[in-house]
Amino acid sequence: MKNKNITLIIGIALPILFITIISIVIFTPNLFIKPQYNFLYSIEDSYYSYNQQYLNSYSIQNGHLVSTALPVYSNTKIVYKGDNPPLFLYDVKNNSTHQINFVDTKNLSIEAGPSSPDGYIVKYQYSNDGIFGLLGSNNNQNGHVIAKGNGSKKLDGLDSGNYGYSYNENFKFIGWIK
Amino acid sequence: MDKQQTIAFIEDQLAAGKISKEDIFSIASRGAPVSRSVMPTSSSKNLISTFYGIGAIIALIGIVILIEQNWTQIGFGGRILVTLGISLTTYVAGFLFNKDHQRIISQIMFTISSALAPLGVYVLLNEANIDFVWPYQFYTACILFILFGYALWATKKNILFLLTIGFASWIYYSLILKIFGSNYNSDLLKYASILLGLSYILIARGYQSISTTIDSSNEKEKKAVRNVLYGFGALGVLGAGIFVGGFFDLIFIAFIFGAFYGSVYLKSQSMLVFGALFLMAHIVKLTSKYFVDSIGWPIALIVIGFLMIGIGYMTYELNKKYISNKLA
């Protein structure tokens, strides 16, 4: 009888133990995600904004942000939305983002990356859809993260901003602020 | 007291109503195989259970069709009434049918309740424009696990053991998928299913220890519950294991023979059947993966065909020699 009780207890404990172990393995690296460098990004034209674009884009030259003119297509009618796409600074310590002016970046030293000086990268991460979309899946888990090794941390405010940003094609990473 | 006197005494006691015919049948069948004279009672019980089961399935199908076809016509009130309303009513009815002879109908009520409850929650969330995804599925599974776990504790009905394990498995998968999240790895999900299958087998084995009754029909139900768990356990282990691939293809052979050994050791026909089916599937998989290029499909099919016949015969013999005889 005692032996059978043990099998019952082991049977119930196995899934609990499995969940505990994979939680530790998956979540522990996330605890050590402590990036030091803020980064700049812009919201440019998405795949869906057909025949619409800005006159200029951003790039890094000699460690500084510069505005570079985009090629003009003579045989296609382009609707220009403005001179430069909106520019943002992401504060990694406070996990917040705010728009800045191009002139405010003049004194900033910027590294193009894609890795930060302390080894982090910004990437878009997809979650799973579960089994046939059932059993607790949620697409809202998709989004941009800052990651290093096996650990990652979701970047708030990037995937539901005032700019209606919902497709990762809009996001253009520019560089890390040193 | 000689034989005639004993029979006369029993007849007197029967006439006086001090003992019933059932008591005599019960004494006669104790420790011995069930005699042919009690078979009609057993078969009529089976017939009633079958009718109950068919009735429950028809009612559930009817409810699903009613909601699906008349989603807008019956309105939110109607949808809630036929899902959560019936679920709640049948849950309470499961408790109210508490007499010994009402055990089967009580279990049918709990089964209907368990099937309609998630549908009712879906209807409720849909009205509030909330997707039935994490964390709502997790909360639903937890609440239903507690409700049906309580019913199991309070009524000791065997079907509730399966239903509670079903809701616990829902919690397990929703947690696993949440934890995997962006670190999604389908192999991990396969290993999680193998582990859950193993867990079912161990729980089924341990379920015998909960059995405290000498009631034969209750014991029969417990056996059925164990067999269902053994079956789902084997399906979980073998069904997920066959898709892992790579080096695991070799380990999987040990799993299949483990299922054959387990089926004899645990007296489980469902485990034996799944062992045989997955052995056939694995032979087809390995042949098509490693041998078809060298021997060609026609010879491979001939070999596979004869191997299938061999496995079928071996399964039949194993069942006859070690399982069905021991179950009788």
Give the secondary structure arrangement, pairings included.
The complex is a heterodimer of chains A (178) and B (328).
Chain A: H1 2-31, E1 39-43, E2 52-54, E3 56-61, E4 64-69, E5 79-82, E6 87-91, E7 96-100, E8 110-111, E9 121-125, E10 143-148, E11 151-154, E12 171-177
Parallel strand pairs in A: 2-5
Antiparallel strand pairs in A: 1-6, 1-12, 3-4, 6-7, 8-12, 9-10, 10-11
Chain B: H1 3-16, H2 21-29, H3 39-69, H4 75-96, H5 103-127, H6 136-155, H7 158-180, H8 186-207, H9 216-241, H10 248-265, H11 269-295, H12 297-327
The residue fraction in helices of chain B comes out at over 70%
Instruction: Report Rg of chain A.
Output: 22 Å
Helical stretch tally of chain A: 1
Number of helices of chain B: 12
End-to-end C-alpha gap of chain B: 35 Å
Tell me the helix content of chain A: 10-25%
Short description:
The complex is a heterodimer of chains A (178) and B (328). With 178 residues, chain A is α+β, with helices and mostly antiparallel strands.
Search tags:
A: 178 residues; 5-stranded antiparallel sheet; B: 328 residues; mainly alpha; 12 helices
Descriptive account of the structure:
The complex is a heterodimer of chains A (about 180) and B (about 325). Chain A is α+β, with helices and mostly antiparallel strands and about 180 residues long. Chain A is about 15% helix and about 35% strand. Chain A contains 1 helix and 12 strands; from the N terminus they run αββββββββββββ. Chain A has a 5-stranded antiparallel beta sheet with strand order 7-6-1-12-8, with no helix packed on it. Chain A has a 3-stranded antiparallel beta sheet with strand order 9-10-11. Chain A has a two-stranded parallel ribbon with strand order 2-5. In chain A, a hairpin with a 4-residue loop joins strand 6 (about 85-90) and strand 7 (about 95-100). Chain A is elongated and about 80 Å long. Chain B is an all-alpha fold. Helices cover about 80% and strands about 0% of the residues of chain B. Chain B has 12 helices and no strands. Chain B has helices at about 5-15, 20-30, 40-70, 75-95, 105-125, 135-155, 160-180, 185-205, 215-240, 250-265, 270-295, 295-325. Chain B starts with a helix and ends with a helix. In chain B, about 30% of the residues are buried. Residues about 35-40 of chain B have low confidence and may be disordered. The chains are: A alpha+beta (about 180), B mainly alpha (about 325). The interface between A and B is large, with 34 and 39 residues.
